[in-house]
Every structure is written in C-alpha cells, then in structure tokens.
Write a structure and sequence with these properties.
Radius of gyration of chain B: 26 Å
Number of strands of chain A: 11
Oligomer: heterodimer
Number of strands of chain B: 3
Structural class of chain B: mainly alpha
Order of helices and strands of chain B: HHHEEHHHHHHHHEHHHHHHHHHHHHHHH
CATH superfamily of the largest domain in chain A: Periplasmic binding protein-like II
Helix content of chain B: over 70%
Number of helices of chain A: 9
Strand order of the largest sheet of chain B: 1-2
Distance between the termini of chain A: 76 Å
Strand content of chain B: under 5%
Order of helices and strands of chain A: HEHEHEEEHEHEEHEEHEHH
CATH architecture of the largest domain in chain B: Orthogonal Bundle
Largest interface: A-B, 73 and 73 residues
CATH topology of the largest domain in chain A: D-Maltodextrin-Binding Protein, domain 2
Largest sheet of chain B: 2 strands, antiparallel
Shape of chain A: globular
Structural class of chain A: alpha/beta
Number of helices of chain B: 26
CATH class of the largest domain in chain B: Mainly Alpha
C-alpha cells in the first residue's frame, strides 16, 4: 500500500506541476486585444509580415488562420473572423461580403532548380495539365496542381483556360496539393514536375520559368504583359462595422506605409 | 405513505443502488457515443444522399465542386487497393515479426524488441507522412524514374504497411503465446524439428488470432488519414499503377473540407459515413472470427484419415527445408523492421535537432516568429480536458463491467461490442463528427473545448479496457475479505479494489496521453491550426504538436521547423513508452514483495 501511495503522490505532484505551469503560462499573457484574420494560404505570408510590423507598434495580437479563399469568405459571412483574405476576385456567389484589393500577385510557374528549361508556352502547359503531354524538349513530364477550392488554382485555371485536370490510370495524373508551400517543397525535390505558386512566395529553393517568353517579374505583372496574375482581396462584411482594433489594422494594411512592406515582399502595389 | 414503503424506497435509493445506477450509466455511455456518431453522421449526410442519389454517389467517378457532382467510386477503389496492398505486405511482415519475437528472439532481446514494436506503434502518423514525403518519395523517384514526383500506390503501401505492422504484430504475438505449450512439446516428441513445430503446428494453432489481427490491421489501413494524404498525390486517378496519384476516402475529406460549399460538405460527411460503414462491417467480421475461435481449433479437431498420415509424414519430411527457409526469412524481416524504426527515428532526429533551440521551443511566439510555446500549452490543455472527461467515464464503465455486471450477460457483451467499435473508429471520423456536432452544431467554433471533448471519446476505449484488465487481475479473495470485515460494495471498490488496480489506470492514462499527442486528423477538424499565440482559454483555436508539424509542412517555408517539431514529438513518444515499462516494472516489483 505504501508504494501505491507513493505512485499516487508522485502522479499528483506531476499533475499539480503541469497545471501550475499551465496556469502560469496562461496567466502571464496579459489580456491583449485580439483580432482574427482568416483565409487564403497565398495571402497568409504577406499578412503575417504586415501583422508582425503592426504588432511592433501596437499592443495587439493578430491571429491569422490559414486556410483558403473560400473558407475566408465563408468565415466573414458567418462572422467567425474580423476580416477575410481571398486570392481571387469575389463572384456573385459570395453574397453579403465586399472586397478591397490589397495588392496584385503573379502566379509563377516553377520547376526544380536542376531543370534546363527556362520558358514554356501556354499551349504546352495546358496540354500537360489536361492531357498529360510532356513539355517538349524538357525533363518535365508531370504537373502538380492545387486542390479544387484554392484561389491560386482558380485563377490559374481561368487564365490558362484549363477545363479539367487529367484523370485516369497513368502516372501523369495531376497530383493535387493543399498548399502553396506543399507545391514548392515537392518541386524542390522532384526534377520532373512543374507547378504554380504565388509570386510573392517564390524563393531560391525552386526556379521560375517564363511563359510565352515573358518572365514573371514585378514590371511585367504591372504592365499586364505577364498573363498569370490575380488580386489579393481583403473581404469585409457588406453591412458590418469593424471593431476599433480591427479597423486600426485594416487602416494600416491599406496605408502607404504598409505598401512598402508589400512591395518589399515581392508583391505588386496597386495604390 | 406507510413505514414499509418508506423503508422500501429508502432501500431503493440507498447509496449502493444509486452508485450502481451511475456505473451502469457510465458503462452505457459508449453505446450512446457510438449511436450518436453513427446517427449524427447519417443525419448530416442525408442531404447528399438525397440530392445526388445513393447509387450515383457511390458509383459516380467524378468529384468536382465546380459542377457540383460528387461521386466516390474512385476513392472506394483507391482505398480498397491501397488497403489490400498494405495488408498483404504489412501483414506478412508482421506475422513473421511476431513469430520471430515469440519463438526465435534471444531472451535478452525480447523486451527490447517489444519496445521497438511499441515505439513503431507510437510514432505519430504525421511523422510517417513527413518521412514518406521527404525521404521515401525522392528515393523511389531515383530508383524507378516515374513520370511524377513519386506520389502514388507504391510509396503509400510501403509507409502504410509499416504503420499497421505493430497492430498486427502485437495481437499475433498474444495469440501465439496463448497456444498451449504442450502443442509444441507434442510436436517435438513426434520428431519435428523446432522450425517444423513452429511453422506447421503452432502457427496454424494461432490462426484465429492472426485473422483477427489482420482484420484490425485492415481497419487501421482503411482509416489512416494524414500520412496517406501527404503521399497519395490526391489526383483523380485509379491506382492501377505504382505511381498514379489517386485519392482515398480519408484523404478526400482532408483535401476538400477546407473550402467546401454546404452541398460539398454534406457529400464529404457522406464520404466519411461510407468509411464508417466499412469499419462497422469489419468489426462484425472480427466478432464472428472471435466467436469461431472459441470452439477449439479446426486444424487440430480435424480427423485424420490413414492415408493422410502417410502424406503428412512425407510432407513433413519434405517441408523440413521450407520451414528452415521460413526461419531465416523471419530473422531477416524482424531485423529489417528494427532497422526501419531506427532509420525513421534517426532520420527525423538528424534533420530536426540542429533546428531545435531554446528560443524555438520556449521563446515568445508572434506573427514574425512562431515558436513551440503555444503548442506546449495547447497540447497540455487538450490532455487535461480529455483526461478529466474520459477518466471518470472510463473507470466507471470498467468498474461496472468487472464488479457489477454478471459475467457473460448480454448487456456486458453489448457494451464490450460497442467499446470495441468505438476503438475501431478512425480518427478522421471522430474529427468529422466533432466538426459537425461540436464545432458547428453546438456552436463551439474551432476550439480546445471541441478538440478536448472529441479526444475524450477517442481515448475512452483505451481507458475502459486497460482499467478493466487490471480490475480483473485483483484477486477475489481481497473483495471477500473486505465484505467479511463488513464493508459495503462501494467501499470495497474504492478502498480495496481500485488502489490495487492503480497500475492499470496509470498505464491507461499514459497510453491516452500518447494517443492525444499523436492525434492530428481529428484535431485539424476540431481545434483548427492557429499556432501563433498561446491560447487564452478553452475557447481558443490552437494547434497541438502534431497539427503544428502538418502546418509547418504545408507552409513549405518551414520544413526545418517541421522536422524539429517532429523530433520533439518522437521524444515524447519515447518517454511515454519508457514510462509504461517503468510503471509495469514498479508494479511487478511490488507484487514480488
């Protein structure tokens, strides 16, 4: 019985310790005001940068829930966040919400760094996604896409006029990945695949290829020569008002000061 | 009211009776839970069945939100193929491993090897996914040069067979150990070599146990979500080649839930419901097999004809070398399994440890710099809430099953059936249920409340079984002595029986913590993946460690952090495994004294 007592006592000690730590940790975070932003995984990186900047000067916590455009809009409709992020224009289906463009973003076609290919044609890309035709004179044999709800995919499919991804029983069936980062990590190791991601998320782990001879650069996106581009939209409730805290953050991200952060991160300012 | 009725009512409402009623209610909770899950998922998927049409939904091969056509035939085929392949490979490996472990393993290694199998079972599915995605897929591409990044059936089969191996191994091991020793001795006495006795006598004798192990393995394979979702490719293909990106019933849910419109959501719940039905059918099969197993062993109750004897004699002589070959195979396979485990753990540690810093673990977390501090808090909070809810329920149910219920009564059988069913439900189904019932239905939102309650349901069967097991090990003489000293039933249970069974309860707590730490699919659907801030209360959304690995992975920018978090997860798992052994060791030592 003594041992039982000992075990019980030690279990109790552990429990108290855990609860104590928990209490302390919960307690020390002072009750800051908080706002919630949710939506597109493409917009999330820039929103995180903006939030980090804003938190430096304001005593506030900004929670960013990363999902996708449609969820961001749905959350606004259901009142689950302060405002939403979408990486596509709102459609007539999105009722009860209004959108303000934060900035423009290009969609970069990316391949593995070891690939020789530097340029692809629109028709080749379309044929690869729709029929699995390998891109001529290159090692690219497979395409990687995003899941059906993704704003990036919607913009990409619309701009490239792709009807339906290849299905069937070949190993060229388009793989669908649920996030910008996932596409990038996959391409970073796969030498035979092409994918598409937000231009702002582009880094040196992968290589961007030009489309029909036009490189994906800020200038080409701004003067509309690069075809693959879409807006980043902040979604608000149509008839609602923002809380004071949310309004403050909203004003900040739409300000000229924030635009320098945006352009610094590789997105294209519209102001 | 007469005095007599008063006394009667007083007796009826005595402490003992009330307690009994409470224990019955606690035990019946599992039944309620299973029915609620089935009923609510059915209710939520009715719109899909109604709008799409049952047959069109099952046999339709297109899933497209654009045209609002939802058919899951592709996913059913995908799940079926993947399960068959994984169980063929994983089952074979597991049975060989179990045989080696029971009959050939050197005594000193036995405990260590059992730990290895347990550890393999404890590795979170998200870590398997990470390993498959970052290591296995590129390796397969290097070897086979497929036309894509390595997604598809081959990678999935390899990962999944390692994941179901521990389940099958440990149950096969139990049933092999349960084969009476005199079978072995008898075989040796008749002139069999050790290898012949093992492969031709003991293995067939454990047949029904092995079949139930395989069925459980099938259940595990069908329900596996996160690891599969990461490496299956989620394309709209059929898995008739090693590298076709296809979709399974589970990966479809994770892939599409985030942005689903109401009609698609309903279709996804229906997808989950179909999965649940498969699992329930498997459970019934399991019950049938178990029943069959009781009536002795068919292999040995078969009457031998005289001509049989001659043939058998011949075949024994002939198969001598085959059995020896199998003996070698079992050595090779079990070494391979140990090697795979070591490799996964070392791979994650090597990739993760360089990125583990005090700052990354405990530093202040913000949008500019995400650390693990919020995950420590949220995981602890989830563990606390789930245990607070599930422990009384589980221990109460176990007390009823062992102390109150008549042995072998129908009610007990029904409860056991439902506890087993609850244990067999895959976590993605719990996640869907938690999502529609707590998050949306009860308006909790993505919160630790919803996650904790869902987790309580997940760990309930573990607690019931483990506690019941240790209650049944308490000798009856202790109860009798307690009654003889004048203690009531309730007093006996709490003062005499429960303290004796404390090891079982502590073990069940540790196992439950392991399960919670490992859980990702159910939590993504109930707690969400907010990871930047320390949760302020149970109303907040906050990612646990496993969910954080998933988030870091899908962020892409933070693969190193994903490895670092995964290595912390693995450390947890190893510590918990050691704790279980420690508790058992303490208990055994006490028994000896």
């Amino acid at each position: 019985m003594k041992k039982v007592g000992k075990i019980l006592a030690s279990a109790l000690c552990v429990a108290t310790l855990v609860c104590g730590t928990l209490g302390a940790m919960t307690g020390c975070g002072s009750k800051k005001e908080s706002i919630t932003v949710s939506g597109s995984s493409s917009v999330t990186p820039i929103m995180e940068k903006l939030a980090a900047e804003y938190e430096k000067t304001h005593d506030i916590r900004i929670k960013i829930n990363e999902s996708d455009s449609s969820t961001g809009i749905k959350d606004v409709q259901n009142g689950l966040n302060d405002f939403g992020m979408a990486s596509r224009d709102l459609t007539e289906k999105d009722t009860g919400v209004k959108g303000y463009t934060l900035c423009m973003d290009g969609i970069a076609l990316i391949v593995n760094k070891s690939c020789d290919i530097t340029d692809v044609s629109k028709a080749d890309v379309k044929a690869l996604y729709e029929n699995g035709t390998s891109i001529p004179n290159s090692s690219i044999t497979a395409a990687i896409g995003r899941e059906a709800g993704s704003g990036t995919r919607k913009a990409f499919d619309d701009l490239m006029k792709i009807e339906k991804y290849l299905s069937g029983t070949s190993d060229k069936v388009v793989s669908e990945i649920t996030s910008t980062g996932g596409v990038k990590t996959t391409i970073a190791t796969a030498t035979n695949s092409i994918g598409y991601i937000s231009y702002g998320s582009l880094d040196d782990t992968v290589k961007a290829v030009s489309l029909d001879g036009v490189a994906c650069t800020v200038e080409n996106i701004m003067n509309n020569t690069y075809a693959l581009q879409r807006p980043f939209v902040i979604v608000l409730k149509e008839n609602g008002t923002l809380s004071a805290a949310a309004q403050g953050f909203y004003d900040y991200i739409m300000s000229a000061e924030a635009q320098t952060v945006i352009t610094g991160a590789g997105y294209i300012s519209v102001k | 009211m007469t005095t007599l009725t008063k006394i009667k009512t007083a007796k009826f409402f005595s402490k003992e009776n009330i307690a009994k009623a409470i224990f019955i209610a606690l035990a019946a909770f599992s039944i309620l839970a299973v029915f609620t899950i089935i009923g609510y998922l059915l209710y939520a998927s009715i719109p899909a069945f109604r709008d799409i049409g049952f047959f069109k939904f099952i046999f339709g091969s297109e899933w497209s939100a654009k045209s609002e056509t939802f058919g899951i035939w592709r996913m059913i085929v995908g799940t079926f193929f993947l399960t068959v392949c994984a169980v063929l490979l994983g089952g074979t490996l597991a049975v060989f491993t179990a045989i080696w472990l029971v009959f050939y393993c050197p005594k000193r290694l036995k405990k260590i090897y059992t730990q290895i199998v347990n550890l393999l079972a404890g590795i979170p599915s998200i870590v398997y996914g990470l390993f498959g995605y970052k290591f296995l897929m590129p390796l397969l591409v290097d070897i086979f040069h497929p036309n894509n990044a390595g997604f598809g059936l081959l990678a999935c089969t390899l990962i999944l067979s390692v994941m179901i191996l521990p389940t099958i191994t440990s149950i096969t091991k139990n049933s092999l150990e349960a084969v009476p020793m005199h079978y072995y001795e008898g075989a040796l006495a008749l002139g069999c070599s050790k290898n012949q006795a093992v492969w031709k006598v003991l293995l067939p004798a454990a047949k029904s146990g092995i079949i139930s192990a395989i069925i459980l393995g099938i259940g595990r394979a069908i329900g596996e979500t996160m690891a599969v979702q990461m490496i299956v490719g989620n394309g709209s293909g059929y898995p008739f080649g090693a590298f076709v990106p296809f979709t399974t019933l589970t990966s479809n849910i994770v892939q599409n839930w985030g942005y689903a419109t109401p009609s698609e959501q309903s279709a996804l719940i229906a997808d989950g419901f179909v999965l649940l039905i498969f699992i329930l059918i498997l459970n019934l099969c399991l019950m049938a097999v178990k029943k069959d197993g009781k009536g002795g062993n068919k292999f040995f109750s078969r009457r031998l004809r005289e001509s049989d004897q001659k043939d058998t004699l011949k075949s024994y002589r002939r198969t001598g070398s085959a059995c020896d070959a199998l003996w070698i195979v079992s050595w090779v396979i079990s070494l391979l399994v140990a090697f795979v485990l070591a490799f996964i753990v070392i791979f994650v540690f090597v990739k993760g440890f360089p990125h583990l810093s005090i700052d990354f673990m405990f530093g202040e977390s913000g949008n500019a710099h995400t650390t693990l501090a919020p995950a420590f808090v949220s995981t602890t909070m989830l563990i606390c809430l789930a245990l607070v809810l599930a422990l009384p329920l589980g221990v109460g149910a176990a007390i009823f099953l062992n102390e109150y219920a008549k042995k072998g009564s129908i009610f007990v059988k029904v409860i056991r059936l439902f506890v087993d069913t609850l244990a067999g439900i895959p976590s993605i189904i719990f996640g869907l249920f938690g999502m529609v019932f707590f998050v949306i239905g009860m308006n909790m939102g993505y919160s630790l409340w919803a996650g904790g309650i869902t987790l309580a349901l997940i760990i309930l069967p573990t607690i019931i079984r483990s506690t019941e097991q240790s209650l049944s090990e308490v000798p009856d003489s202790m109860r009798e002595a307690s009654y003889a000293l004048g203690a009531g039933k309730l007093r006996t249970i709490f003062v005499v029986v429960l303290p004796q069974a404390i090891t079982g309860i502590i073990t069940s707590i540790i196992l439950s913590i392991g399960r919670i730490v490992n859980e990702s699919a159910a939590l993504i659907f109930t707690v969400g993946s907010a990871s930047t801030f320390i949760p302020q209360g149970y109303g907040d959304s906050a990612a646990s460690f496993a969910v954080l690995v998933w988030k870091f992975m899908s962020n892409g920018l933070q693969v190193n952090e994903a490895y670092a978090t995964a290595s912390i997860l693995l450390i947890f798992v190893i510590i918990l495994n050691l704790l279980v052994s420690l508790v058992e060791w303490l208990f055994n030592r006490r028994k000896k004294i």
